[in-house]
Specification:
There is one protein chain. The chain has one domain (about 1-30, about 45-275): SGNH hydrolase (Rossmann fold, 3-Layer(aba) Sandwich). The strands form four sheets. The chain has a five-stranded parallel β-sheet, with helices on both faces. The protein has a two-stranded antiparallel ribbon with strand order 4-5. A two-stranded antiparallel ribbon has the order 6-7. The chain has helices spanning about 1-25, 55, 70-75, 95-100, 115-125, 140-145, 160-180, 210-220, 230-235, 245-250, 260-275, and strands at about 45-50, 85, 130-135, 145-150, 155, 180-185, 185, 190-195, 225-230, 250, 255-260. The protein is α/β, with parallel strands linked by helices and about 280 residues long.
């Protein structure tokens, strides 16, 4: 597998750069790519879903076919979207998104080797001008491991992990995706992130401010590259106890699992629809 990954990167990256040079544009990853006040382009023929297990549509009952990407795609079909490429990988962090090493890569619905970011960039360059929206949820696995749900304590690593998430988003992930969606200086597709609900808020109310802090960082990070939709509020916000956590996630089931149920994924999809106005 390691040899395949290296081969993919050796072949894909030069091919992408050659295509870009022929077309007269190059992916800017610095401040010049960080435009402000981006207007929504609207849906095109292809929808690209990126991220972790929520984007994948994971559920502990092994129903992986009713995630928010599936639900959002059903809405997008009425707007002329004819293809969904869901590259999400369960367990993905912002670092593995860039460098590879997703722990559950064999579960991926869309085949590729190497990092998710490389695969996404290759797809966007291959279908340049045809992809919108690109949805992204990343970051939950960067910080959820810092929360001990048994003791409701937070690791001293939280601030460092949050800073690492900010760096990965603002210095690599978002500028590269935005650049890949920019052709001849024109934005050709919408990059739409989501923020996070707090699955632990009923058992550890002290985690709510932490999730709100993460969400504020995500909102700041995406400025100039895309837009963000407010899943936190759609799931009931900061109120505790929050009955929606039981209704929308598996936290109150025998699984005690943080992932969304069908109903929760439907709410997330609706939040994307409302946030984009599609």
């Amino acid at each position: 597998m390691h040899k395949n990954v290296q081969l993919y990167r050796r072949l894909a990256v030069p091919f992408i750069l050659a295509c870009l040079l022929l077309l007269g544009f190059a992916p800017e990853v610095g401040a010049a790519a960080h435009a402000k006040g981006l207007a929504l382009v609207g849906p095109k023929s292809r929808y690209l879903s990126l991220g972790n297990s929520l984007a994948f549509g994971f559920q502990p009952d092994l129903d992986f076919n009713h995630g928010y990407a599936d639900d959002f795609y059903n809405n997008l079909k009425s707007h002329g979207v004819t293809s969904l490429a869901n590259m999400a990988c369960p367990g993905e962090t912002s670092s593995t998104f860039i460098n590879g090493g997703c722990p559950y890569s064999l579960l991926r619905k869309y085949f590729y080797v190497g990092p998710q970011l490389d695969a996404a960039l290759f797809y966007l360059y291959l279908h340049r001008g045809q992809v919108s929206p690109v949805t992204l949820d990343i970051g939950a696995n960067d910080f959820l491991g810092d929360i001990d749900k048994k003791t409701c304590t937070v690791s001293a690593n939280f601030n460092t992990d949050l800073q690492n998430l900010d760096n990965n988003l603002t210095q690599v992930i978002l500028p590269k995706l935005h650049a890949a969606l920019t052709v001849n200086g024109q934005t050709t597709g919408d990059l739409v992130m989501m923020n996070y609900y707090d699955p632990y808020q009923n058992i550890c109310p002290n985690t709510v401010p932490l999730v709100q802090l993460v969400n504020q960082h995500l909102a700041n990070d995406v400025q100039g590259y895309g837009t963000i939709v407010d899943v936190f509020s759609a799931f009931g916000g900061a109120t505790t106890p929050n009955p929606n956590i039981c209704t929308y996630t598996w936290m109150c089931s025998i699984f005690k699992d943080i992932h969304a149920k069908d109903a929760g994924y439907s709410v997330i999809a609706q939040t994307f629809e409302n946030g984009t106005g599609y």
